[in-house]
Specification:
Family (chain A): Belongs to the binding-protein-dependent transport system permease family.
Helix content of chain A: over 70%
Strand content of chain B: under 5%
Distance between the termini of chain B: 14 Å
Subcellular location (chain A): Cell membrane
Helix content of chain B: 55-70%
Structural class of chain A: mainly alpha
Number of strands of chain B: 0
CATH architecture of chain A: Orthogonal Bundle
Strand content of chain A: under 5%
CATH topology of chain B: MetI-like fold
GO biological process, one term (chain A): transmembrane transport
Number of domains of chain B: 1
CATH class of chain A: Mainly Alpha
Largest interface: A-B, 125 and 132 residues
Order of helices and strands of chain B: HHHHHHHHHHHHHH
Oligomer: heterodimer
InterPro entries (chain A): MetI-like, MetI-like_sf
CATH topology of chain A: MetI-like fold
Membrane topology (chain A): Multi-pass membrane protein
Largest sheet of chain A: none
Number of strands of chain A: 0
Chain lengths: ~300, ~325
């Protein structure tokens, strides 16, 4: 089937001038109900996050007291405690390293692989593509135990390198699947022209095809960033010493029951969530519409 | 699925790269294929495919994981699985999640997406609500929050003493909610967990459906409106059938994620909940492998999880086909 990226030039499905008619009462009622539903849902999403944010400025005593009160004063100390004493700081930096390298590598490899699969005919092309698709559907849990021993055997267990390679491998199917559609749509004439002008395959890819696939690359990169930043199972098994943010958070929570620094726990949550939310808000326009091309097959 | 003959946007059949003459095997081309296809494929085969294949073999052994010795024991692990009350319990819980979570998530996401896209004014052109973009952006937030953190946040919200849920309920006059442990009572632990999982999924699928609905030809909406179809009728008779494929794919994705659920459950109820009421297969697998060191037995659990997952996907496909899903290639 054809995969179409949906662009949204306007907010409405139809931008044709519409006749100005007075809406009747029933329609106003519907509008009100619709808005109420959406507002309720938005509150359900935002309020928990807001509560965490407010609580991150409370002292432990306040956090354990009435949850509905505002903090007495802004207890910035929590952020310092979370960053320094609970391992969130180093884990944050490790996460940036691991996610950064994985993201760059998987984007390059994924673009290369999907380009070849989408534009060249050779024996086994379809088979490789479907094998990649299958990699998307199997539960990672089935692979996790053998993966542990593979990394152990090659000496990459407990290393950031091992984690990066695994991240790349498991993000590859999604990347290839998504970019396949983009490369398929690029006009073949441009490729021909580049070939006639004497560009080799490498040059054609990096200087002609890759820049043309930029919109697709941007969306995939955002999805991969979110996915890798949120990864929990792989680091938990392959890197057991709490060096990645999600692990540090889990560790922090399990301690919190005893050591009870709830203000710092909330601060750690904010430290973890804030960068991703900011990235999302900045780039959310890139995601508009392009979602559908990747998720529909 | 893409057909084997690719088409350019203009609809002309694409020309195969090597048409006409055979390309010579220059260094440029050989190195190109080796690096562009070879490198990603090797990484994929070694770190993704081979573990899956090995898992099936390990599940037939008594391997402990840390020793080199293992014996082939056939299907003993699988027999043991079904006599293992804890595992049967976890499998039941996972299946409950696989049944409830996708259904609730998809219905909710679809309803919200429909309201945003065609819930606008009842007269004139079919349009979305005003300020719907804000709702769309906000709804997507949970997708940007790591699942473990979502679990932590909700564990705090549900906390009997210091959580905001009980505080709000008590404030509203529900005195029974005072110090009620939502996750500590086997009557509510599962439902409370399901709520969290749905909360984290809905926004993403809402955005997905919004994009799908915006892709529908506006003229279809126009003619429906001219024929006097109400907004509810439009949603049921036009939107749902036309984005049916999106719904099916989304249903399968949510289902796979719900059958896993490891992260949420690990954060909400690390020990499997009161009377194991929220223990899921993936949690049992994790403990069996990495705490108890029974790798062979744990991979058998992994295989069962994969079987349940594939069965789930198959059921979704069959149901979709039986209820009139369009045949492959029948689009447009």
């Amino acid at each position: 089937m054809t995969q179409t990226a949906v662009t949204e030039p306007t907010d409405t499905p139809n931008s044709a001038p519409r006749p100005r008619r007075r809406s009747n009462d029933r329609s106003i009622g519907f509008d009100v109900v619709a808005h109420i539903i959406l507002i309720l849902w938005s509150l359900l999403v935002v309020l928990p996050l807001l509560w965490v944010f407010v609580s991150s400025f409370k002292t432990t005593k306040e956090a354990l007291g009435n949850p509905l009160t505002w903090p007495h004063s802004l207890h910035w100390q929590n952020y310092a405690t979370a960053w320094n004493d609970s391992g969130v700081g180093p884990a944050f930096i490790n996460t940036i390293i691991v996610v950064g390298f994985s993201l760059v590598i998987v984007m390059v490899l994924g673009a290369m692989c999907s380009y070849v699969l989408a534009r060249f005919k050779f024996f086994g092309n379809r088979a490789i593509y479907y094998l990649m698709l299958a990699g998307l559907t199997f539960p990672i849990f089935l692979a996790i135990v053998p993966l542990f021993s593979i990394l152990k055997n090659v000496g990459l267990l407990n290393t950031l390198t091992g984690l990066i390679i695994t991240y790349v491998a498991f993000a590859l199917p999604f990347t290839v699947f998504f970019l396949h559609a983009f490369f398929k749509r690029l006009p073949f004439d441009v490729y021909e022209a580049a070939q006639v002008d004497g560009a080799g395959e490498w040059r054609t890819f990096f200087q002609v095809m890759l820049p043309m696939a930029r919109p697709g690359l941007a969306s995939v990169a955002i999805f991969n960033f979110l996915g890798l930043w949120n990864q929990f199972l792989l680091p938990t098994v392959l890197k057991p010493d709490n060096s990645v943010l999600t692990q540090a958070m889990a560790q922090f929570q399990s301690q919190a029951g005893y050591a009870v620094n709830f203000g710092a726990l909330f601060a750690a949550v904010v430290i973890t969530v804030a960068p991703v939310l900011v990235v999302y808000i900045i780039f959310q326009r890139q995601l508009r519409g392009s979602v559908v091309a990747g998720a529909v097959k | 699925m893409s057909s084997s003959v690719s088409t350019t946007p203009a609809g002309r059949p694409a020309r195969p790269a090597g048409r006409g003459r055979r390309r010579r095997l220059t260094f440029d081309r050989v190195s190109f294929f080796a690096v562009f296809l070879g490198v990603p494929l090797i990484i994929f085969l070694v770190f993704v495919v081979s573990p899956f294949v090995q898992a099936i073999y390990y599940s037939l052994t008594d391997w402990g994981g840390f020793s080199a010795t293992m014996n082939f024991i056939g299907f003993d692990n699988y027999v043991k699985l079904f006599q293992d009350d804890t595992f049967v319990r976890s499998m039941r819980n996972s299946i409950i999640l696989g049944l409830v979570v996708p259904f609730v998530t998809i219905v909710l996401a679809l309803a919200l997406a429909t309201v945003v896209t065609i819930g606008g004014s009842g007269t004139g052109a079919v349009r979305g609500l005003t300020r719907s973009n804000l709702y769309r952006v906000v709804s997507f937030f949970p997708y940007a929050v790591p699942a473990i953190v979502i679990g932590i946040i909700w564990a705090q919200i549900y906390d009997p003493g210091s959580g905001i849920l009980n505080a709000v309920l008590t404030h509203l006059g529900f005195d029974g909610a005072k110090n009620y442990a939502w996750l500590g009572d086997s009557r509510t632990a599962m439902a409370a967990s399901i709520f969290v999982i749905v909360w984290s999924f809905v926004g993403f699928y809402m955005v997905l459906f919004i994009a799908g609905i915006r892709g529908i030809d506006p003229e279809i909406f126009e003619s429906a409106r001219l024929d006097g179809a109400s907004r509810v009728r439009t949603a049921v008779s036009i939107v749902v059938p036309l984005i049916r494929d999106n719904i099916q794919t989304a249903y399968i994705y949510v289902g796979i994620a719900a059958l896993d659920s490891f992260v949420y459950m690990a954060a909400l109820n690390p020990d499997g909940g009161p009377q194991l009421s929220t223990l899921v297969m993936s949690q049992d697998l994790y403990t069996t492998a990495f705490t108890k060191g029974q790798f062979g037995y744990a991979t058998a659990m992994g295989v069962m999880l994969a079987v349940v997952t594939l069965a789930f996907a198959a059921v979704v496909f069959i149901v979709n086909a039986l209820t009139g899903g369009r045949e492959k290639g029948g689009r447009r």
